[in-house]
Amino acid sequence: MSVKKLVLIRHGESIWNQENRFTGWTDVPLSAKGVQEAHAAGQLLKAEGFQFDYAYTSVLKRAISTLWAVLEETDLQWIPVEKDWRLNERHYGALQGLNKAETAEKFGDEQVKLWRRGFAITPPALTPEDPRFPGHDSRYATVPASQLPATESLAITIERVIPYWLETIRPRVESGEKVIIAAHGNSLRALVKYLDDISEEAILELNIPTGVPLVYEFDDQMKPVRHYYLGNADEIAAKAAAVANQGKAK
Ligand SMILES: O=C(O)[C@@H](CO)OP(=O)(O)O
Questions:
Q1: Which residues form a coiled coil (predicted)?
Q2: Which residues line ligand 1 (CB under 6 A)?
Q3: Is the pLDDT of residue 2 over 80?
Q4: What's the pTM value of the predicted model, to 2 decimals?
Q5: Given 47, 103, 108, 204, which residue has the most CB atoms within 10 angstroms?
Q6: Model ipTM value
Q7: Rounded to the nearest whole angstrom, what is the distance from the C-alpha of residue 221 to the centroid of ligand 1?
Q8: Nearest Cα residue to 218 out of 250, 174, 181
Q9: What are phi and psi of 57, to 5 degrees?
Q10: Looking at residue 250, what is its pLDDT?
Q11: Which domains does the chain have, with CATH numbers?
């Protein structure tokens, strides 16, 4: 049996992660700390001997910049990179831009947890006239209007991430190519839920830290056999807990 490996990485801290604001499809850059996290992740991958043949990312610069930092550190800037909106963060609707702790003060911790992690709960939707609606952004010009979200739950995010995984990424991993995906907290939660067959209840408590490589290993039938984060386990657990706590009133 030959082990097939896939590396997932959530982007490093963005300026809106730093300011604790709902981000979704808002195209904000990495913070200085996020740039450092992305380079450190690349150095770790290099030190552990990881190589890649092909890379996927979203069309949002915090994931793209993270991927670039990793490819720079691993000296793999030459490999093909495919960007696709289906790897974008879950669309946070009208919550985009609001501070998470202030929103919790106004609506309560429970409501914010439901908006953030409730499996099929959609945040309040944008209207198509709203400048934040993706139909106004030329990068989505080729996406059929019926597929452009005004808000998304994790369940809806799964409906775009998993077909993209099955049709585009998975065959490449299956054929033995070494693939890295740089994406987002919730688009990666969608993929992880699918890969590990996590229940709708259990996925509520799963938080993915910024800028930490998550390695999946598959057998010949593409069944995931194990997964692990690279790096210090205590630090990674503390980073994941910090993500969970972002939605609590101060
Ligand atoms: O704001 C967002 O887009 C996401 C990721 O940063 O946040 P959350 O962890 O609240 O789903």
A1: none
A2: 17, 22-24, 89, 92, 116, 185-186, 243, 246-247
A3: no
A4: 0.96
A5: 103
A6: 0.95
A7: 33
A8: 174
A9: -150, 175
A10: 81
A11: 4-245 (3.40.50.1240)
